[in-house]
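Translate structure to sequence.
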C-alpha cells in the first residue's frame, strides 16, 4: 500500500485529492491546523461513508511555519508521495499579510523539501514531491502561458509561489529529488472557498434569492481567468507523480472568460437576466496590482500525461450555482 502525505488537507484541492488517493488504495496522511472552530467540513464525508471498506486516512496537527513538526511528520510517516497543497492561497489577502504569505506559501515548500532531502540521506527510500504552483506566477506576462513562459508575479502571493517553484526545481537538480511543479490555472468547484470570486458569485446569488442579501459587491469585473473544475486538476497532480521522470506541467483549459462573463452566466443559470440590478462595485476588492489575463497552453500535459479537462465553463458555472441554490433552498422565496 502506497503512503501519501497531503498538506492543505482541509482545503478545496486537498479534499478532492484525498478522495482520489483513498479510491486508489493509498494510506493517506493529512496535515491539519488546530482551529477554534471545526475546519474539516470538506473531508468529513470521507470518515462518514459506511459503505466503504476501512479507509486508511489519518490527520496530523501541524503548521507549515513549524519546521520541527514538518520534519517529524516526514520522518514518522515515511510517505512515498508528498502533495504540498497547503498555503495562504488568497491573492488579495496576500497584500495585507505579505510576510506571513511569504513564510507559509514560500518557505513552507522549502521546509518540506529540506525534510525530504535529509530523510533521503539517512534512509534507503525516495519520496516524490508535488508543489502546488500557480498561474498567478505568470502575472503580467501575456497569454497564452505554458511551461516556457517567463514569470512576472503581481502579488506577494505570486512572489511566494515563484520562490517555491524555483526551490522545487533547484532541489530536483541539486539533490536528484523527484520534485515536480504542477502549474495550475484557476480551478473551482462547489467546495471552493467562499471569498474567491466564483464561489462568492454563486453563493451571493443563492443568498439574494433566499432573501438573505440584497446585493453582491465585487471588484474588477474585467479580469480574465482560465477556469476549470478542481476535481479533474487533482487527477493531473496525481499523474505527475506517477511519471518515470520528474518534470513541470501547466494545467488549464485553454479558454478564458472575464469575471463579468462568469457573473452573467451564473445569474442566467439562477433564472435572473438582469444581473446589473444586483451587482455593485466595491473598490475594496481591487488589488494594488492585478493579473489581467490568464490562458493556459496545456499541450504538454495533454501529450505527456494524456490529461485533458472535461468540464466546460458553462457546466462549471451551472454545477456551482445549483449546489449553492440547494444549500440555501430552504430559504428561497416563491418567485
Ligand atoms: P485552499 O482551499 O485555500 O486551501 C488551503 C489549505 O492550506 C487549507 O487546508 C488551509 O488550512 C491550509 N493552510 C493554510 N495556511 C496553513 C498553515 N499555516 N499551515 C498549514 N496549513 C495551512 O486552497 P486550494 O484552492 O485548495 O489550493 C490548494 C493549493 O493550490 C494552494 O497551495 C494554492 O495556492 C494552490 N493553487 C490553487 C489554485 C486554485 O485555483 N484553487 C490554482 C493554483 C494553485 P485551513 O483549512 O485550516 O485554512
Ligand atoms: O477568485 P480570485 O480571488 O482568484 P485569483 O486571484 O485568480 O487566485 C486564485 O487563482 C490562482 C491561480 O491563478 C491561485 F493560485 C490562487 O491561490 C487562487 O486560487 O480572483 C479572480 C479575479 C481577480 O482578477 C480579482 O480581482 O476576480 C477578480 N475579482 C473581482 N471581484 C474578485 C472580486 N476576486 C475576489 N476574490 N473577490 C471579489 O469580490
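Result:
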Amino acid at each position: 500500500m502506497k503512503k501519501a502525505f497531503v498538506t492543505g488537507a482541509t482545503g478545496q484541492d486537498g479534499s478532492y485529492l484525498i478522495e482520489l488517493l483513498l479510491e486508489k488504495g493509498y494510506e493517506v496522511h493529512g496535515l491539519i491546523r488546530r482551529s477554534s472552530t471545526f475546519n474539516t467540513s470538506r473531508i468529513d464525508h470521507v470518515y462518514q461513508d459506511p459503505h466503504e471498506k476501512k479507509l486508511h486516512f489519518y490527520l496530523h496537527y501541524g503548521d507549515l511555519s513549524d519546521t520541527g513538526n514538518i520534519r517529524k511528520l516526514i520522518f514518522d510517516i515515511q510517505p512515498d508521495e508528498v502533495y504540498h497543497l497547503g498555503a495562504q492561497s488568497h491573492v488579495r489577502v496576500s497584500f495585507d499579510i505579505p510576510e506571513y504569505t511569504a513564510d507559509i506559501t514560500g518557505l513552507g515548500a522549502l521546509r518540506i523539501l529540506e525534510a525530504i532531502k535529509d530523510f533521503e540521506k539517512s534512509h534507503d527510500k525516495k519520496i516524490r514531491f508535488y508543489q502546488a504552483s500557480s498561474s498567478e506566477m505568470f502575472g503580467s506576462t501575456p497569454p497564452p502561458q505554458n511551461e516556457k513562459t517567463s514569470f512576472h508575479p503581481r502579488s506577494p502571493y505570486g512572489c511566494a509561489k515563484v520562490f517555491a517553484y524555483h526551490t522545487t526545481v533547484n532541489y530536483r537538480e541539486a539533490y536528484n529529488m523527484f520534485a515536480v511543479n504542477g502549474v495550475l490555472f484557476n480551478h473551482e468547484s462547489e467546495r471552493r472557498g467562499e471569498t474567491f470570486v466564483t464561489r462568492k458569485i454563486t453563493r451571493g446569488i443563492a443568498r439574494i434569492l433566499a432573501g438573505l442579501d440584497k446585493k453582491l459587491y465585487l471588484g474588477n469585473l474585467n479580469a480574465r481567468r482560465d477556469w476549470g473544475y478542481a476535481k479533474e486538476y487533482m487527477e493531473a497532480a496525481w499523474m505527475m507523480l506517477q511519471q518515470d521522470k520528474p518534470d513541470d506541467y501547466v494545467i488549464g483549459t485553454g479558454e478564458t472568460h472575464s469575471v463579468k462573463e462568469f457573473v452573467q452566466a451564473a445569474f442566467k443559470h439562477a433564472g435572473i437576466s438582469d444581473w446589473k440590478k444586483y451587482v455593485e462595485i466595491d473598490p475594496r476588492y481591487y488589488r494594488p496590482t492585478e493579473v489581467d489575463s490568464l490562458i493556459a497552453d496545456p499541450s504538454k500535459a495533454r501529450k505527456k500525461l494524456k490529461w485533458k479537462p472535461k468540464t466546460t465553463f458553462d457546466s462549471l458555472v451551472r454545477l456551482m450555482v445549483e449546489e449553492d441554490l440547494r444549500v440555501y433552498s430552504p430559504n428561497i422565496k416563491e418567485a
